[in-house]
Amino acid sequence: MQFTKGHGTGNDFVLLPDPDGQLDLTPGLVAALCDRRRGIGADGVLRVVRAAKHPDGAGQAGEAEWFMDYWNADGSFAEMCGNGSRVFVRYLVDNGLVTPTGEALPVATRAGVVRALIEGDTVAVEMRRPRLYDDSTATLGGRTLPGTAVDVGNPHLVCVLPADLELGALDLTTAPGFDPAVFPAGVNVEFIVAGEPVDGVDEHTLMRVYERGSAETLSCGTGACAVAAVALRDAGRGTGVVAVDVPGGRVTVTVTEDSCWLSGPALLVATGEVDLGALLAAA
Ligand SMILES: N[C@@H](CCC[C@H](N)C(=O)O)C(=O)O
């Protein structure tokens, strides 16, 4: 089977073209593809399928031709992936599956239709406005850290680090604890500190993330949107532009009254053939 590898600020994906939805994609196959030693290696898989040909996309087929069928590295589904949607659009355009018209390009996801604009290496995606809905806590290294629950289509818990903890020193090799009563389907946990002022934006935040289903990643687009919404709230604002530095680079988030734009580089770096049978046999 043909595959493409791509990433957005180091959040990396295996893209599988399956326009008619004929591939029997299973959690085991996704985990084998994402295995960094025995497979191709990635934080997740993006199946490129026509919305009309996938049960989770068919309801959006009138609005968007293509459905981003996103899977985490452990084979679980997620409702939405911000960086994934940016890489997905890069794939559609570079492979001639859509023609950019200058208008925002619709893509169906499990969290509804998102819209994307491409300019050079940058892909910007418009998603729903993050909804801050509860206070909660994460536990990490024996500490309990207060945070804010944020819905960006998928669930996030954003924790502002206390002054005695260094972002770079956090041990994210094991999953932070969280309250399953607040997050019954699991959660992506972001840890943040304020950055130095940056020209042209309202706030600057540094973040690391432990993703549900993928462990620590170099970037999380929906996480950056959740972080931006919390940083703006803490600055007493409802809208604004936030530069979010992640281990893999920088994304820019613009929160408006009714939506949220995530912008940054999205690149395709390799294409090839993968023998799915051999991969599964060796997994
Ligand atoms: N890296 C993604 C988020 C992927 C899904 C997440 N792990 C979840 O389970 O919700 C992004 O860029 O948003």
UniProtKB/TrEMBL annotation:
<dbReference type="Pfam" id="PF01678">
    <property type="entry name" value="DAP_epimerase"/>
</dbReference>
<comment type="similarity">
    <text>Belongs to the diaminopimelate epimerase family.</text>
</comment>
<comment type="subunit">
    <text>Homodimer.</text>
</comment>
<feature type="binding site">
    <location>
        <begin position="82"/>
        <end position="83"/>
    </location>
    <ligand>
        <name>substrate</name>
    </ligand>
</feature>
<keyword id="KW-0028">Amino-acid biosynthesis</keyword>
<dbReference type="GO" id="GO:0009089">
    <property type="term" value="P:lysine biosynthetic process via diaminopimelate"/>
</dbReference>
<feature type="active site" description="Proton acceptor">
    <location>
        <position position="220"/>
    </location>
</feature>
<feature type="site" description="Could be important to modulate the pK values of the two catalytic cysteine residues">
    <location>
        <position position="211"/>
    </location>
</feature>
<feature type="binding site">
    <location>
        <position position="72"/>
    </location>
    <ligand>
        <name>substrate</name>
    </ligand>
</feature>
<keyword id="KW-0457">Lysine biosynthesis</keyword>
<dbReference type="GO" id="GO:0005829">
    <property type="term" value="C:cytosol"/>
</dbReference>
<comment type="function">
    <text>Catalyzes the stereoinversion of LL-2,6-diaminopimelate (L,L-DAP) to meso-diaminopimelate (meso-DAP), a precursor of L-lysine and an essential component of the bacterial peptidoglycan.</text>
</comment>
<keyword id="KW-0413">Isomerase</keyword>
<feature type="active site">
    <location>
        <position position="81"/>
    </location>
</feature>
<protein>
    <recommendedName>
        <fullName>Diaminopimelate epimerase</fullName>
        <ecNumber>5.1.1.7</ecNumber>
    </recommendedName>
</protein>
<dbReference type="GO" id="GO:0008837">
    <property type="term" value="F:diaminopimelate epimerase activity"/>
</dbReference>
<feature type="binding site">
    <location>
        <position position="154"/>
    </location>
    <ligand>
        <name>substrate</name>
    </ligand>
</feature>
<comment type="pathway">
    <text>Amino-acid biosynthesis; L-lysine biosynthesis via DAP pathway; DL-2,6-diaminopimelate from LL-2,6-diaminopimelate: step 1/1.</text>
</comment>
<feature type="binding site">
    <location>
        <position position="11"/>
    </location>
    <ligand>
        <name>substrate</name>
    </ligand>
</feature>
<dbReference type="InterPro" id="IPR018510">
    <property type="entry name" value="DAP_epimerase_AS"/>
</dbReference>
<feature type="binding site">
    <location>
        <begin position="211"/>
        <end position="212"/>
    </location>
    <ligand>
        <name>substrate</name>
    </ligand>
</feature>
<keyword id="KW-0963">Cytoplasm</keyword>
<feature type="binding site">
    <location>
        <begin position="221"/>
        <end position="222"/>
    </location>
    <ligand>
        <name>substrate</name>
    </ligand>
</feature>
<feature type="active site" description="Proton donor">
    <location>
        <position position="81"/>
    </location>
</feature>
<dbReference type="InterPro" id="IPR001653">
    <property type="entry name" value="DAP_epimerase_DapF"/>
</dbReference>
<feature type="site" description="Could be important to modulate the pK values of the two catalytic cysteine residues">
    <location>
        <position position="156"/>
    </location>
</feature>
<feature type="binding site">
    <location>
        <position position="188"/>
    </location>
    <ligand>
        <name>substrate</name>
    </ligand>
</feature>
